[in-house]
Amino acid sequence: MATTKRILKEVERLNKDPVPGILAQPIEGNIRYFDVLMDGPSQSPYAGGRFKLELFLPEEYPMAPPKVRFLTKMYHPNIDKLGRICLDILKDKWSPALQIRTVLLSIQALLSAPNPDDPLANDVAEQWKTNEKLAIQTATQWTQMYAKPSQ
Q1: SS3 breakdown of the chain: % helix, strand, coil, rounded to 5?
Q2: CA–CA separation, 90 vs 101, rounded Å?
Q3: Which among 112, 105, 106, 126 has a CA at the least distance from the CA of 41?
Q4: Tens-digit pLDDT profile for residues 119-147
Q5: How far is residue 33's CA from residue 27's CA, in Å, rounded to a whole number?
Q6: Using CA atoms, how far apart are residues 77 and 86, in angstroms rounded to an integer?
Q7: Which of 23, 107, 122, 17 is nearest to 67 (CA)?
Q8: Domain boundaries, the chain
Q9: Which residues belong to the active site?
Q10: Bridge partners for 39 per DSSP
Q11: Contact at 8 Å (CB) between 37 and 18?
Q12: What is the per-residue pLDDT across 73-93, written as a single tens digit (0 to 9) for each?
């Protein structure tokens, strides 16, 4: 039960003190499953985009990291075609001291600073390394095509 109490506390904090550019709400009837909307960071190829993610808190949370993936199609070396995210705190660098908000901020930061040396999408990482300008152009185009907020 302590886990549910912690999750409720985190949700309350997300509502009271929202993270700029990120909206995370548990879906009705399931406190462990969140719909997330994330604005692409300014000064990045994802600027102006609004990305949908899903976040799930496993039974072992907070001892195990949340499962997070992009539902919006992305062109990013650390995000694969299925939307899975390569980020250390979602794997071996997870700590129970981290919270949903920390995870979402880290993912948003990853959009600003792709790491082609630790890729999940090898083809994208390869392009990022060999022709960064073209990779950024493609990421910008995908943002325009797939992540434009509906007016």
Answers
A1: 35, 20, 45
A2: 13
A3: 112
A4: 999 999 999 999 999 999 999 999 999 99
A5: 6
A6: 9
A7: 107
A8: 2-146
A9: 86
A10: 50
A11: no
A12: 999 999 999 999 999 999 999
